[in-house]
Amino acid sequence: QVQLVESGGGSVQAGESLTLSCEYSFDRYDDYSKGWYRQPQGRSATSERDFVSCINDDGYIDYAESVKGRFTISRDSAKNTLYLQMNDLRSEDSGVYYCAADRRLMTYIRDLGILPRHWGQGTQVTVSS
Length: 129
Known about the structure:
By secondary structure, the protein is mostly beta strands. 5% of the residues lie in helices and 47% in strands.
């Protein structure tokens, strides 16, 4: 059983920072790639979630172009926690942020247009300009 629990969302002004956390647990050993997706306001379908960032199981890190230089993804394996440090937030960063996990490389399935298999419940981020 895979469990992903996000926290850290909130409402901020443009230019401010937030850090999201995702506590994860897996039924066996951790061979999962993990990442963050965003569902913009007004979109409700899972298929409308946009890739933000990921750490593949092999340690490779990637970001969406729109967040490069502003967001940093990291993980603490001792705490079973994934983080997303978000700096210089913009109004277009607003949405529900979902933690995701998949045994396949997340960059690989992203490039094929496939969404991760496992999701958290999401945490709301609202950035006011």
